[in-house]
Amino acid sequence: MRDWEKEKQDRIAFIRTILNESGADGVVFGNSGGKDCALTGILCRMACDNVLGVIMPCGSKQNYGSDKDDALAVAAQYDIATVTVDLTETRDALLEATGKAGGLNAMAINNMAPRLRMNALYALAQSRRSLVAGTGNRSERYMGYFTKWGDGAYDFNPIGDLTASEVFEFLRYLGAPARVIEKAPSAGLYDGQTDEKEMGVTYDAIDRYLTEGKGEEADIAVIERYHSTSMHKREKTPIYGLIIDNAEINS
Question: Which domains does the chain have, with CATH numbers?
Answer without folding.
Answer: 4-199 (3.40.50.620)
